[in-house]
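Aggregate trends can hide what the representation actually does to any particular protein. For completeness, the protein is quoted in full, as a sequence line and a line of structure tokens.
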Amino acid sequence: MINDILAETREKMEAALHVLAQDLQGIRGNRASTALVDRLKVDYYGMESELRQLANISTPEAQTILIRPYDKGALKAIEKAIQEANLGVNPNNDGEVVRLNMPPLTKERRQDLVKVLHKRIEDARVAVRNVRRHANDDIKEYEKEKMISEDEAKSGQDKVQKMTDEFIAKIEELGKAKEKDILEF
């Protein structure tokens, strides 16, 4: 029973970490990244589609994102989606591809991005702690219903806490790496 709770807890904490990792890819760092635009929603013939489904996205240079649509008819819709996303960059459409020349980050913009980063990291920490709370509640419920002993409950809660500490450390690690990427010149 406790092993089931621990397995489910690990699964949920891994999911929270995965969501954070994907979220952080969308925060602009020092180099241009396709993750900045690949999940952008584009209104393509009345259907909402992610940009990565409509185009090949690459970074030929450190400060450039190149978007080559599979259908040239999508160029205007892609351009419009980028402008509406308010990424702080104007798309250049040459009739074949959309080119995004990423301007260097200003000191103020870097500080704003770090604030956003810290908020996302805190949200991930809270998510992991909520998973811990639910796991501990389940363990206490099993103990109350005499399905497990007091010692088993204590041992289970200790394991949940160790798992929580492990995932909080992984979250901190991801955050530090991303902060370094943002602040690096």
About this structure: The chain has two domains: 2-25+106-183, 34-101. Residues 107-144 form the longest helix (38 residues).
